[in-house]
């Protein structure tokens, strides 16, 4: 409701020709609470860029702290800072303090969500990881808009609504305080004692035999030590060098492009005011749920790369149809296509979370994922700037551009270096340690180890044979030095042995590693 009133600020009188709120309901919105009218009206438009820049500037630093200090302390600190900042938003008396609090809320909100997703990704097994991580990102994207619609219909008031958001943040902080550290991160940073404590505690809670858990951890620790002795891996790199190494790869580039396009397509297309009813809200929720189920099943079978490519292709096709309907002026078809495009973009978020977590190794997963996500937030800013476009020709060009960007991102995901696809069940069974194998798998392993093709030669006989060869050593030039003598067959064999190239270090390491693994498997079988 527009009104004419006179406002004062610091004793200075000025005439306000128009307002954007009812003077009878003061302090029921940000505009009315802080008087963002007349020459201060531009401050209301500043709130959204400040909120986005909070995530852009601070979240990568929080991700780097998570890689350096650990997942749990970073998550707990971010959750409590988020609670304090949200409380400050509700009780702030000046707009500057309100903006600063929203800046902190934005940074810690995205940091908590990303780090909790990484923690869930690292503590779940490969066979359940796809569905758990997918559901973790699908529920808030699908349900939270409907919860906000219910709160908006209830109209509790500005202060009550701020307090309603404070309570979930308090519950989040209390919940995060009871989390355990990621054992994957502890192993990657060689905190073996702490990792063993976390793994044994988790096995006790899940009903796993403690002896099996201890034996499995010993085997895992032995394999990690062998890898460390063999070569320097990416997981041992530190700080910015590792982040730079990961970002030079094509996989990180494809991740960043996918994030940018998905966030841009989600924010650049807005539904018209006619679609704010209950029918369109229920339709969007049903379509989004159906897309989540179908694409989640497809990702479980084919992997995150193909699922992400499917989402990008669907976005490109829908953008092409939307360009045609917008140019012809078909409002209903454009609204339906826009709704479908927003649903596909939301599903693409969940797929891209899993794809990003697979791309980066454990030691730099938080830094890489936060940086890739923040690159995508520039798509959010671009989408917010392009929402003011209303002309049909401009919208037609914009939709064609979005279709071209979808094609570019799909090519980047498919043609750039791909991530490792999940192993098949039979390959997972072969990779299991002995303590976790079934009785039939152990029998098959023993039969394979006792087969004639896998029998090892006696080292004593090999040593005696090498001594005999040294005793009857013959040089290749000895036959030439005695032209009248004829070389014996044994001497020719010795010459062939001398001329043969010595075995490489890689061959020796593989042979010794195979023998040691067989010995440890036999020892574990005897212990059982």
Automatic annotation (TrEMBL):
Q: Where do transmembrane segments lie in this chain?
A: 77-101, 107-124, 252-271, 277-298, 305-324, 367-387, 393-422
The name on file for this protein is Uncharacterized protein
A Pfam family annotated for this UniProt entry: MFS_1
Region: Disordered; residue ranges are 448-485
Report a single Gene Ontology molecular function. Answer: transmembrane transporter activity
Give the location in the cell.
Answer: Membrane
Q: How does it sit in the membrane?
A: Multi-pass membrane protein
Q: Which UniProt keywords apply?
A: Membrane, Transmembrane, Transmembrane helix
* Biased composition range(s): Basic residues: 458-473
Q: According to its record, what are the GO cellular component terms?
A: membrane
Q: Report the InterPro entries cross-referenced here.
A: MFS, MFS_trans_sf, Sugar_transporter_CS
